[in-house]
């Protein structure tokens, strides 16, 4: 047997055997994988539908709460209109409110005969309902509110939208079918909870649970794999044919005389790129020798281009760093710097560590190719990274005993990130081969650009903070107040919640500036801000409106709550004088005016105007007191 045939047969066997084995594995595993994937898809779809049911339960509960509030806060005609409005707006298909004796106070729409709260397994058939007990302000029972959805209505439409390619069956706690998206064989429905495949369907079942009173069955048509297997067989046959053709061609080319070419190739492999082959004939060997000489010339040119390309790459990476320094996304900057550094040095992995404010630990900021926790912390002075952070000197060597995150036995470059001569972090690169001085110089460049980028981000964040805070008191400024009050009014309107606004003004503050000077007046304003912050909640917004005027936004607060806070602030200002030890004390009081959305106004400007009127009413009442807008007319 000739060498050409031996090479041909060997090549065919090397290609065909793995293909045949792979085809056998695929032919056995593919149907199971397809079925498993469909079962997982059906189960996930059933969980998605179960979440839709939970969402409708939450909607029903919210509607029942709204109905309870409406029924206890309006006239009989108003209650009926409010309850009907909830149904008309699609918040429920039926709403009913009863008194403690079970008598109907108001009702609208379709309701179950015996409603069951959707937090428990539902046996009420065709409805999903929420039952909310009502209580008076003193905690006594005041009846109950019921909101219900017809399962075959909008709920079933939402289920259809959630599962587009399959069919859905909803069953109650007893196993009875409540609703279906199409006609489904009853045998398939009964077997859904025990068998994942039945009669050409793949099923997924999610049982009832808290907040989801129905069991959910999702059915997907079972997929079949013959078509895929046929395609795979055709591809296998085509691959075998191509392998035979390639084997014949490769064997023909390989069997040509290679002795001279082998010697020349060995010299080139040793680094002698000046090697040339003498062309003695014009046959195949001669043409191959000519091509080999051309290849050697091209190789010499390519090596020169690579050396120039490396210098150009370093210059391009420096320009990349300059571009990154203008970006304000710190996480993205550090990842781009790290990825570029890894690529430019052929490193296998790396990480960026930043010092904590206490400068005791290094924490993970970015990593690539390392299996390390996101909350990695390295003590300053420990391991290579800790020593670089402590000394500020770069390291190029081998990790002998690394700390957490450092690959023991790997080659490493670790350079400090310095800002104004102070170390703020460390850039580490790891590789399987040693790094040279050029790699170290390149990484120093990246470290410099990364430091500039971090400084830019910190300056940008500080500028953003200063743009919305008052420089004297540390409170939010007028700009932040105008943005926040509009958002809070929009949120209060959406959820039908009250929103209060307090305007505060120091009484006779001008006398402090006239008698003690503006510096003393500024100190008083700073202390006033601290006293007000001590009285408000975390969710409240305190802003300096102008001069000695301060406004407070109180979400979900009515007139009584606003009045209580105003009284506490008045007491906090009056109970002790302003001033530090060693300076004459200043006794001051504060006046406050409040307004409530939507009782007194329906817009931010109108609400502020009403609070301002109430403030002037408090001033005219003798100061050191508070007033709430009368609410007789709601301005727009």
Gist of the model:
This protein is of the alpha+beta class and 636 residues long. It is 50% helix and 20% strand. Strands 12-11-10-15-14-13 form a six-stranded antiparallel β-sheet, sandwiched between helices.
Report what the structure shows.
This protein has four domains: 35-221, Beta-Lactamase; 261-320, no CATH class; 325-456, Beta-Lactamase, CATH 3.30.450.40; 478-628, Reverse transcriptase/Diguanylate cyclase domain (Alpha-Beta Plaits), CATH 3.30.70. The protein starts with a helix and ends in an 8-residue tail after the last strand. The chain has a six-stranded antiparallel β-sheet, sandwiched between helices. It has a five-stranded antiparallel β-sheet with strand order 6-5-9-8-7. A five-stranded mixed β-sheet has the order 17-18-16-19-20, with helices on both faces. With 636 residues, the chain is α+β, with helices and mostly antiparallel strands. The chain has helices at 3-73, 76-88, 151-162, 186-191, 226-254, 259-269, 284-324, 330-345, 383-391, 437-467, 478-494, 509-516, 518-535, 559-574, 604-620; strands at residues 94-98, 104-109, 127-135, 141-150, 167-171, 177-180, 197-198, 201-206, 215-221, 349-355, 361-368, 377-379, 395-398, 411-419, 422-431, 499-506, 541-546, 549-555, 590-597, 626-628. The radius of gyration is 39 Å and the shape is flat. The chain is 50% helix and 20% strand. The chain contains 15 helices and 20 strands. The relative contact order is 0.06.
């Amino acid at each position: 047997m000739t060498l050409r045939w031996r090479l041909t047969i060997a090549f065919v066997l090397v290609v065909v055997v793995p293909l045949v084995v792979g085809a056998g594995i695929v032919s056995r595993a593919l149907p199971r994988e397809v079925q498993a994937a469909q079962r997982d898809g059906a189960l996930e779809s059933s969980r998605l539908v179960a979440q839709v049911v939970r969402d409708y339960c939450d909607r029903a509960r919210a509607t029942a709460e709204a109905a309870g509030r409406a029924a206890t806060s309006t006239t009989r005609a108003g209650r009926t209109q409010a309850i009907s409005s909830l149904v008309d707006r699609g918040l429920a298909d039926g709403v009913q409110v009863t008194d403690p004796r079970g008598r109907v106070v108001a009702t609208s729409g379709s309701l179950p005969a015996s409603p069951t709260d959707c937090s428990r397994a539902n046996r009420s058939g065709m409805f999903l309902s929420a039952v909310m007990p009502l209580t008076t302000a003193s905690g006594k029972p005041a009846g109950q509110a019921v909101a219900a959805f017809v399962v075959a209505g909008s709920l079933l439409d939402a289920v259809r939208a959630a599962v587009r390619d399959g069919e859905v069956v909803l069953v109650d706690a007893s196993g009875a079918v409540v609703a279906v998206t199409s006609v489904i064989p009853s045998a398939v429905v009964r077997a859904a909870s025990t068998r994942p495949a039945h009669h050409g369907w793949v099923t997924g079942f999610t049982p009832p649970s808290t907040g989801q009173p129905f069991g959910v069955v999702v059915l997907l048509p079972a997929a079949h794999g013959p078509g895929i297997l046929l395609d795979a067989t055709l591809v296998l046959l085509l691959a075998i044919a191509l392998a035979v053709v390639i084997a014949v061609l490769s064997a023909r080319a390989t069997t040509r005389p290679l002795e001279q070419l082998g010697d020349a190739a060995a010299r080139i492999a040793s680094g002698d790129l000046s090697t040339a082959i003498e062309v003695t004939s014009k046959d195949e060997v001669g043409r191959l020798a000519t091509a080999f000489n051309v290849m050697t010339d091209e190789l010499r040119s390519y090596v020169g281009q690579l050396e120039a390309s490396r210098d150009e790459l370093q210059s391009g990476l420096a320009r990349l760093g300059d571009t990154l320094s203008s970006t304000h996304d710190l996480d993205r900057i550090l990842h781009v710097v790290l990825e570029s550094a890894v690529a430019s040095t052929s490193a296998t992995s790396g990480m960026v560590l930043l010092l904590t404010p206490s400068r005791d630990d290094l924490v993970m900021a970015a990593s690539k190719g390392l299996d390390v926790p996101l909350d990695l912390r390295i003590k300053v002075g420990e391991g290579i990274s800790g020593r670089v952070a402590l000394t500020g000197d770069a390291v190029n060597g081998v990790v002998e005993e690394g700390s957490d995150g450092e690959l023991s036995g790997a080659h490493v470059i670790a350079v400090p990130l310095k800002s104004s001569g102070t170390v703020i972090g460390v850039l580490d690169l790891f590789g399987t081969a040693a790094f040279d001085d050029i790699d170290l110089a390149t990484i120093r460049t990246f470290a410099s650009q990364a430091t500039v980028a971090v400084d830019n981000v910190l300056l940008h964040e500080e500028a953003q903070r200063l743009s919305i805070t008052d420089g004297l008191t540390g409170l939010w400024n007028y700009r932040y107040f105008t943005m926040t009050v509009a958002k809070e009014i929009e949120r209060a309107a959406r959820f039908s919640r009250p929103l209060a606004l307090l305007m505060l003004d120091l009484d006779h503050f001008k006398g402090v500036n006239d008698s003690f000077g503006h510096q003393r007046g500024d100190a008083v304003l700073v202390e006033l801000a601290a006293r007000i912050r001590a009285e408000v909640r975390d969710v409240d917004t305190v802003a300096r409106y102008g001069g000695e005027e301060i406004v407070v936004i109180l979400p979900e607060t009515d007139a009584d709550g606003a009045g209580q806070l105003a009284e506490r602030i008045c007491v906090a200002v009056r109970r002790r004088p302003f001033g530090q030890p060693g300076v004459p004390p200043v006794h001051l009081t504060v006046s406050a005016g409040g307004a409530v959305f939507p009782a007194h106004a329906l817009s931010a400007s109108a609400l502020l105007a009403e609070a301002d009127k109430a403030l002037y009413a408090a001033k005219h009442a003798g100061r050191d007191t508070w007033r709430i807008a009368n609410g007789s007319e709601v301005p727009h």
